[in-house]
Design brief:
single chain, Butyryl-Coa Dehydrogenase, subunit A, domain 1, Butyryl-CoA Dehydrogenase, subunit A, domain 2, Butyryl-CoA Dehydrogenase, subunit A, domain 3, 8-stranded mixed β-sheet, AcylCoA_DH/ox_N_sf, Acyl-CoA dehydrogenase, oxidoreductase, AcylCoA_DH/ox_N
Length: 349
């Protein structure tokens, strides 16, 4: 079943050129996300969430990304913050997740430092690539806790309020322009104990299968679904270029053959990905998924993302300057795809 109506798809795509030109995500599109509770896919129902399964959510991410890259990326990243509803302390769950427009932006990189003080910590740091920073209601980031001399620093997670964070508007890539993936900065801000947590420890309050799913393959599956959605859009736009060619053009049969080949390859990648995710989720529900099976998910995700990149590159030479013109839909989605593919969790390393 489709998540988005044809009217919603049309509305989202009607803003693509403006988003690409201005690098801003519109309130109208945020309204669609809030209405569908897409930032709350992994939030319990008592906080207005949908609490979807991993197989269902990755299909939503793919569909959203096939409509528009920035839209799909923000739905994926924004909903991912709901995963922390199973980690954060009970005292802050209402504040962080209950508002209709609640969404977390942040970073997993431990590029901050924290000093223990009475009632909490004083945190200083700067974190890159915080997608959705311009409309986030909470910011999460990891910092290393400074200990006594000779002690090994410990990593901890912190939930900052909007007022505590300075947004450094430094997102300047050639794709996913409207994601607002800026850096954030805090300087010696106080974070009370109740707004600290560990992404590796359950709070025991959210008894849902997705909350006990390992974070790494969860994130990798999410980003890979974005790549698949962008791959579908690449194929769609390449097909539109084929339709524009004159019937007598010698290019047409050549491009049609390439499209058929790459379309088949993309469907094979999709089939393998969803077969792996669905199978592993079933094992997870039964309590029978071992680390080896979760590692398989990670491997399939990396291979799928690489395969989607190769599909896009295989099509590009056959589309002439249409592919290179920055104002064409193909060029926009091509840039979005390459930018998304640079995320380290689905990279080649």
């Amino acid at each position: 079943m489709k998540e988005f109506t044809e009217q919603e798809v049309e509305k989202i795509r009607s803003t693509e050129e403006q988003m690409d030109r201005e690098g801003a995500f519109s309130d109208e599109l945020l309204g669609i996300i809030y209405e569908k509770q897409l930032f709350k896919l992994f939030v319990p129902e008592r906080f207005g969430g949908r609490m979807t399964s991993l197989p269902e959510s990755v299909r939503i991410f793919e569909e959203a990304s096939s409509i528009n890259g920035s839209f799909g990326w923000l739905v994926t990243i924004g909903s991912g913050g709901g995963f922390f509803s199973g980690n954060m302390k009970n005292e802050v769950l209402d504040d962080v997740f209950l508002p209709r427009n609640a969404v977390i932006a942040g970073s997993g990189a431990p590029t901050g430092t924290a000093v223990k003080c009475e009632g909490g910590y004083r945190v200083t740091g700067q974190w890159k690539y915080c997608s959705g920073a311009e409309f986030a209601t909470t910011f999460t980031a990891n910092a290393m806790i400074e200990g006594s001399a000779g002690e090994e620093p410990e990593m901890w997670s912190f939930a900052f309020t909007e007022k505590q964070v300075e947004i450094l508007r430094d997102w300047n890539t050639f794709g996913l322009k409207a994601t607002g993936s800026h850096s954030i900065k805090v300087d010696d801000v106080f974070v009370p104990e109740e707004r600290t947590f560990s992404i590796f420890e359950s709070n025991g309050l959210v008894d849902e299968p997705v909350s006990s799913y390992p974070f790494m393959p969860f994130a990798q599956a999410s980003f890979t679904a974005v790549m698949l959605g962008l791959g579908l859009r690449v194929m769609e736009e390449a097909g539109h270029y084929l339709d524009m060619l004159a019937e007598e053009s010698a290019k047409k049969p050549v491009l049609r053959k390439v499209l058929d080949e790459q379309g088949e390859r993309l469907e094979t990648l999709r089939s393998t990905f969803y077969h792996t995710i669905d199978g592993n989720w079933d094992l997870h529900l039964e309590g029978e998924s071992e680390q080896e099976q979760y590692d398989e998910v990670s491997e399939v995700c990396a291979g799928t993302a690489q395969g989607v990149r190769e599909v896009a590159f295989a099509l590009y030479p056959y589309l002439g300057m249409y592919a290179g013109a920055q104002d064409t839909p193909f060029n926009r989605v091509f840039r979005d795809l390459l930018t998304a593919s640079q995320h380290e969790l689905i990279g080649p390393y």
